[in-house]
Design brief:
With about 230 residues, the protein is mainly alpha-helical. It is built from 8 helices and 4 strands. A hairpin with a 5-residue loop joins strand 1 and strand 2.
């Protein structure tokens, strides 16, 4: 009887351990299911993603990027430019280049990011150069001849002294200011003119493009931009 009791106790302890292992496994599986989305295939060959959100995580904001127009409209713009190359503005490194054509076909906006980045970076680099030059000049000193102090100065005696360069050459101050205005403001003036050219080109091209479209492209545009798809 004593041996049977010992065997029964061992069996009970073994069953308790197995039950604890199963519970721990189920708990880990449940945590994994919560932290990772499950992907299931439906009968229509589509994939459904079950996004089980973790309460500790917050939804990240969507990036603010320019969205491309529907493929039908993009291809219609490409065909329009191929059939009517004369509508394109004359080539210009800032106002009208190959990137402008690509961006307009995708978004309907005539512009180039490369020119914007170049002009902004040029203005920033010139600003840095102007500040560096001003700091260098303000810290520069020169040795010059000045009247001697005391009675010796009354009799025309002179001595040497170290003074700032700006005090000896005051014209440097307006020269540096003018350089800063031209170096920093010049690229922004060009960029403003670029925006004006881009705005006019966008309006002109869009007016001509939409006036010669087929009905199916209009329908696709209405469906896409109204959210009916």
């Amino acid at each position: 009887n004593g041996d049977d009791t010992t065997t029964n106790n061992n069996n009970i302890n073994s069953n308790d351990k197995d039950t604890s292992s199963i519970q721990e496994h189920n708990a880990k599986k449940a945590k994994t299911t919560e932290s990772h989305p499950t992907v299931t295939a439906t009968s229509t060959n589509t994939i459904t993603i079950n996004k089980s959100k973790n309460k500790n995580n917050k939804d990240l904001p969507e990036p603010l990027l320019t969205r491309s127009d529907p493929t039908t409209i993009v291809l219609a713009r490409v065909r329009y430019l191929v059939s009517n190359p004369h509508v394109l503005p004359p080539h210009h490194i800032f106002y009208s280049n190959s990137e402008c054509i690509a961006v307009w076909c995708k978004t309907g906006v005539w512009s180039t990011l490369q020119a914007s980045i170049y002009l902004h970076s040029t203005a920033a680099g010139n600003f840095k150069s102007a500040v560096t030059a001003a700091a260098a000049v303000s810290g520069s000193t020169v040795t010059t001849t000045v009247p001697a102090t005391g009675i010796g100065g009354w009799f025309g005696m002179t001595t040497t002294a170290t003074v700032s360069l700006v005090s000896v050459q005051p014209w440097i101050i307006p020269a540096l200011a003018g350089y800063g205005i031209i170096a920093v403001g010049g690229p922004y003036i060009v960029l403003r003119k670029c925006h004006e050219h881009w705005r006019r080109a966008t309006t002109d091209l869009n007016d001509k493009f939409w006036s010669e479209l087929d009905a199916d492209v209009y329908v696709e545009a209405i469906k896409s931009w109204s959210g009916l798809d």
